[in-house]
Inverse folding.
């Protein structure tokens, strides 16, 4: 069974992170699967939208696989960050509208992943949203910072990055980190409603608007990778 599954329901692609035993941790298998999914989605030309959800209720994505990371050399660690920048940058700039359906813990690299998507709905009564890099002593790269800074509330982003504070769904909504929070039974249905509405938007126009909103990230990617 793949660590990521994809299906299409009407005009909406539902991407399911499918490694609940690891908390959908980011490791080589997960990165490879995400690249395959992104290649498929980047080829879509019709008006559509994408939801990213989890098959397990406990975690949406807990970030980097710490066991995998612990065995890396300095050079391997740097390569891991380059791969994260590539994959998350592609998610952030994907032409299609994207919605994170956060049903559980969304931590560290998982929170960066959620920040890369256009909209976020989160379970109101379970799970944390947090940038825990400050506590595990792994600072963000400039590109990953720009992705985190895509979140609407810049003051809260600063506080979360510097404190590692954890937010539940209701508080994350109040602070503008997620767009909505709902009980589990209403979470995916609401994400589908949002995605179905977004899928009706003209894809070319949506993409131009997205590029404008994320132009600082685009500039940073070009600057760092000398594109």
């Amino acid at each position: 069974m793949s660590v990521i599954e994809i299906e299409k329901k009407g005009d909406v692609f539902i991407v399911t992170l499918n490694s609940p035993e690891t908390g959908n941790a980011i490791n080589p298998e997960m990165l490879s699967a995400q690249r395959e999914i992104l290649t498929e989605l980047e080829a879509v030309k019709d008006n559509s939208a994408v939801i990213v959800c989890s098959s397990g209720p406990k975690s949406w994505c807990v970030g980097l696989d710490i066991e995998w990371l612990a065995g890396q050399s300095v050079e391997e660690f740097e390569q891991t960050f380059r791969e994260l920048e590539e994959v998350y940058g592609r998610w952030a700039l994907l032409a299609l509208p994207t919605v994170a359906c956060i049903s559980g813990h969304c931590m560290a690299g998982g929170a960066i992943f959620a920040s890369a998507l256009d909209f976020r709905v989160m379970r109101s009564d379970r799970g944390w949203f947090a940038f825990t890099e400050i506590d595990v002593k792994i600072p963000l790269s400039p590109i990953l910072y720009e992705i985190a800074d895509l979140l609407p509330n810049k003051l809260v982003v600063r506080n979360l990055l510097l404190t590692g504070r954890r937010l539940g769904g209701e508080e994350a909504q109040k602070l503008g980190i997620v767009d909505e929070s709902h009980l589990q039974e209403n979470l995916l249905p609401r994400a589908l409603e949002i995605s179905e509405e977004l899928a009706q938007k003209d894809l070319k126009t949506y993409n131009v608007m997205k590029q404008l909103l994320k132009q600082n990230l685009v500039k940073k990617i070009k600057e760092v990778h000398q594109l």
In short: The domain at 4-222 is CATH 3.90.226.10 (2-enoyl-CoA Hydratase; Chain A, domain 1). The chain has a mean pLDDT of 96. Residues 106 and 129 are 5 Å apart (CA to CA). The first strand starts at residue 4 and ends at 9.
